[in-house]
Amino acid sequence: MVRTLWTAASGMIGQQINVDTIANNLANVNTTGYKTETNEFKSLLYQNLQTKTTTANGEQKPIGAQVGLGVRNASITSHFTQGAFLASENPTSFAISGDGLFAVQTGPNPNVANGTNVHFTRNGNFLFALGDAGGNILKLTDSDGNPVLSATGQPIQINANQYMADRVTVDADGQLCYPDAANNPQPIPGMKIGLYQFQNPSGLKKEGDSVYSVTAASGMPINEENNNNVEKSQVRQGYLEGSNVQVADEMVNLIIAQRAYEFNSKAIQAADTMMQEANELRR
């Protein structure tokens, strides 16, 4: 009976984490660049009730007797499917069509190749901020002021005396452009938004604020600019990528998780009733 209690309790704990994950998905349904998460479960150890391979008569038994000891959460997986594009009036709003991610600097001396002092995100809600006290430098940053990195791994910054921020455009390849005298967009040398892919994006570590960091499970960043073996992503100016959370699916999953939690609770109540009956036999 005690085994039943602990087995059902493990199910309740697992489903509670499942509900927490679903609630987090629903809470981020309007978060730019958010990727939905799902719980993966794994069974716990099994206990052998019969270890012999033959019956008392010496006949072979085709099936052994083992009882499971519950469940645990194996992982919480992020699904990097494409979210819907949402129009934005901000000219420095960018959405990615494809598997790439933006890179932002989070510390001194960023090294994108190994992920040092760099975070990655699908949230392209950027803006131009003053990069020095004199106002001579305009730096492309995220909403927290972290510089956006170029295809060469350097912060994207332009001379404020030569370029007006509201006239800068970005083409599908991520190249920053500025109109010439004939109003034709011309590339700004060396200013191309970096896009990076991973062999296993689900292995990235979630840091909050819609950013991720490199882990051994994700592998090192793959620079789309320098690698011809990956499918190139495209940048869409004037759009933001919405979350890929499907509310209807999450509500169904929430009902299933709630029912599973309830079933495990009923199992504990049944075990408690049986133990109570067993205790009353001596009276």
Descriptive report:
The chain is of the alpha+beta class and 283 residues long. The chain folds into 2 domains: 2-79 and 245-282, no CATH class; 85-241, no CATH class. It is 21% helix and 30% strand. It contains 2 helices and 20 strands. The protein has helices spanning 2-27, 247-279; strands spanning 37-43, 46-50, 65-68, 71-78, 85-87, 94-97, 102-105, 118-121, 127-130, 137-141, 157-159, 169-170, 175-179, 185-192, 196-197, 205-208, 211-213, 222-223, 234-237, 239-241. The strands form 8 sheets. A 4-stranded antiparallel beta sheet has the order 7-8-17-16, with no helix packed on it. A 3-stranded antiparallel beta sheet has the order 9-10-11, with no helix packed on it. Strands 12-13-14 form a 3-stranded antiparallel beta sheet, with no helix packed on it. It is elongated, with a radius of gyration of 27 Å. The two termini are 20 Å apart. The mean pLDDT is 90.
- Given as residue ranges, the uncertain stretches (5+ residues, pLDDT < 50) are none
Sheet with most strands: strand arrangement = 7-8-17-16
Oligomer: single chain
Span from first to last CA? 20 Å
DSSP helix fraction: 10-25%
Q: How can the largest sheet be summarized?
A: 4 strands, antiparallel
The geometry reads as elongated
Structural class: alpha+beta
Rg (C-alpha, Å): 27 Å
Roughly what is the average pLDDT, rounded to an integer?
A: 90
Number of domains: 2
Beta-strand residue fraction: 25-35%
Can you write the helix and strand succession as a string?
HEEEEEEEEEEEEEEEEEEEEH
Specify the number of helices: 2
The total strand number stands at 20
